């Protein structure tokens, strides 16, 4: 019998998946704060050094709640060469893409120009992050695809950035965050939807962001755990606004992805909207269909957080309502609430649905052959 | 059950941990203030390398507003989702009935006993004068 000694444990996950998957929520990070400088005009280097960023969130730079783990990330995700979790392509390949057989990985950078009061700086940062995504990530690994980051409070600048990337195969969606100055259906955001429809990319709405408003509908809560569950509340507000303002009437080809805010709440929100619509439709006569119909036709949902009820038939009923063709698997790598693809879906799913869940839906939505 | 000789005691001083693979099972041995513990290095939740996590204490509360921080250094927190496990027993604190990390008994044996067996120690040169960390598996 042999005993092998190892200084460090193996990095590969205990159980890796054999069939190819899509991971629709990966967070790339910068190894150093200045990593974006090559993509920014000199004028902005000086501005950042002199004035900083001036976010909608008052008096602070970092996130509004402590994150439980450093950088809200897995503790085993520090790259060996140093830098924060998610900042090394080679380590991401070794730890996430290769062992999990990831065929398509959608990048969602979170530290963007979103949430800044200076809209010119926001637009410059968005452009820089998009260039950085190409050069550091998508051009070096064809499995990875970027999300077009925009200065989302300035609809016109955002639309210009989106159109600039039209036809660029490095990008597969436009990225917004859920916490904004106003609910996401408002007119100031319409140019974003118009441009996204025009260039044929879905708009992803990822939880988080700085909007200058408290992070719940009744103020600032005490705990990080409240922020975590508050993401679904914020996403519901965004979705109701998008539907009721008639975004899908105006942009009928627009597809949207709700990212990292769960999906278990979707049926009850839709039922409630429909019930009120029976009496109140005269208030929103621009809507030609029931709210639930827009939601079912236009919305895709990423997993992570994957709903985890005690009885798996409850989960399957939820998914029946949403549609097996509308769920996109996501790990949320490198963040601490990461989902392992080999462990996330309970048994009892047909092969066709399993394939759609892990890969097929994402390929279709993002136009990857 | 087979007893495996892991290391001479002085190679695993307090505060250190050693990762190894025995019978294809990833295992970690911890020395916590002179006491030795062994755990399967695989989290029962989603399979992370559990033993890479930090050793912390346990925040407990008998009443709202009364918070006690106990068992300092005896609770292992998973590097992924942060579930907490008792290093002594493998018991989880988030859902003790459904989840438990596999714990292995670890002992210290004198070299004279180790040489006699029934221990497996093919990669170690064992000397009668030292003490050895031994795990049952
Ligand atoms: S894998 Fe250990 S807590 Fe989830």
Determine the mean pLDDT of chain B: 91
Largest inter-chain contact set: A-B, 27 and 31 residues
Q: Mean of the pLDDT scores of chain A?
A: 93
Structure summary, number of beta strands of chain B: 11
The order of strands across the largest sheet of chain A is 2-3-4-5-6-7-8-9
String of helices and strands of chain B: EEEEEEEEEHEE
Q: In which range does the helix fraction of chain A lie? A: 25-40%
Work out the number of β strands of chain A.
9
What is the approximate shape of chain B? elongated
- Net shape of chain A: globular
How much helix, percentage-wise, in residues of chain B?
A: under 10%
* Bound chemical compounds: FE2/S2 (inorganic) cluster
Separation of termini of chain A?
48 Å
Strand arrangement within the widest β-sheet of chain B reads 9-11-1-10
| Low-pLDDT segments, ≥5 res of chain B | none
Radius of gyration of chain B: 16 Å
Multimer state: heterodimer
Beta-strand share of residues of chain B: 35-45%
Distance between the termini of chain B: 5 Å
Write a concise keyword list for the protein shown above.
heterodimer; A: 369 residues; alpha/beta; 8-stranded parallel beta sheet; 36% helix; 12% strand; globular; disordered N terminus; B: 137 residues; mainly beta; 4-stranded mixed beta sheet; 4-stranded antiparallel beta sheet; 1 helix; binds FE2/S2 (inorganic) cluster
Task: Detail the topology: elements first, then pairings.
The complex is a heterodimer of chains A (369) and B (137).
Chain A: E1 3-6, E2 21-26, H1 42-51, H2 89-97, E3 102-107, H3 119-138, E4 144-149, H4 155-164, E5 171-177, H5 190-199, E6 203-206, H6 224-244, H7 247-250, E7 256-259, H8 266-280, H9 291-298, E8 299-302, H10 312-322, E9 327-328, H11 351-366
Helix pairs in contact in A: 4-5
Chain B: E1 3-8, E2 17-22, E3 25-32, E4 35-40, E5 55-60, E6 68-77, E7 84-86, E8 103-104, E9 106-110, H1 111-116, E10 119-120, E11 131-136
The complex binds FE2/S2 (inorganic) cluster.
């Amino acid at each position: 019998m042999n005993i092998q000694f190892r200084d460090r444990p193996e990095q590969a996950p205990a159980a890796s998946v054999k069939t190819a998957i899509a991971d629709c929520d990966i967070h790339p990070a910068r190894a150093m704060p200045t990593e974006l400088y090559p993509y920014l005009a000199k004028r902005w280097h000086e501005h950042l050094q002199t004035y900083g960023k001036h976010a909608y969130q008052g008096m602070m730079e970092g996130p509004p709640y402590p994150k439980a783990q450093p950088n809200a990330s897995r503790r085993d995700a520090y790259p060996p060469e140093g830098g924060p979790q998610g900042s090394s392509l080679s380590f991401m390949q070794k730890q996430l893409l290769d062992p999990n057989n990831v065929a398509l990985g959608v990048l969602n950078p979170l530290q963007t120009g979103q949430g800044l009061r200076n809209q010119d700086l926001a637009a410059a940062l968005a452009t820089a992050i998009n260039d950085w995504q190409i050069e550091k990530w998508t051009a070096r690994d064809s499995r990875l695809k970027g999300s077009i980051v925009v200065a989302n409070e300035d609809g016109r600048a955002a639309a210009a950035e989106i159109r600039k990337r039209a036809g660029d195969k490095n990008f597969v969606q436009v990225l917004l965050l859920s916490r904004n100055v106003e609910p996401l259906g408002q007119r100031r955001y319409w140019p974003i939807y118009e441009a996204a429809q025009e260039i044929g990319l879905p708009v992803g709405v990822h939880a988080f962001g700085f909007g200058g408003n408290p992070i719940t509908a009744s103020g600032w809560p005490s705990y990080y755990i409240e922020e975590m569950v508050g993401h679904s509340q914020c996403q519901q507000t965004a979705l109701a606004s998008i539907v009721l303002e008639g975004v899908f009437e105006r942009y009928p080809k627009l597809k949207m992805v709700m990212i990292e805010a769960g999906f278990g709440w979707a049926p009850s929100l839709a039922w409630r909207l429909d019930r009120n619509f029976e009496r109140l439709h005269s208030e929103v006569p621009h809507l030609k269909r029931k709210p639930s119909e827009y939601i079912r036709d236009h919305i895709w949902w990423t997993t992570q957080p994957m709903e985890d009820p005690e009885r798996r038939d409850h989960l399957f009923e939820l998914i029946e309502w949403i549609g097996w063709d509308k769920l996109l698997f996501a790990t949320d790598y490198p963040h601490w609430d990461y989902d392992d693809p080999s462990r996330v879906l309970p048994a009892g799913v047909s092969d066709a649905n399993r394939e759609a869940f892990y890969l097929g839906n994402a390929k279709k939505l993002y136009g990857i052959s | 059950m087979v007893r495996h000789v892991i290391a001479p005691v002085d190679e695993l001083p307090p505060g250190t941990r050693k990762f190894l693979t025995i019978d294809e099972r990833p295992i970690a041995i911890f020395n916590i203030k002179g006491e030795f513990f062994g755990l399967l290095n695989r989290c029962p939740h989603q399979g992370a390398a559990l033993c890479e996590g930090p050793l912390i204490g346990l925040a407990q509360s008998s009443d709202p507003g009364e918070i006690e921080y106990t068992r300092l250094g005896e609770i292992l927190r998973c590097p992924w989702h942060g579930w907490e496990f008792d290093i002594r027993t493998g018991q989880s604190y988030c859902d003790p009935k459904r989840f438990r990390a596999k714990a292995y008994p670890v002992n210290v044996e004198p070299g004279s006993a180790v040489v006699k067996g029934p221990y497996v120690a093919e990669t170690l040169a064992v000397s009668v004068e030292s003490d050895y960390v031994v795990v049952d598996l």
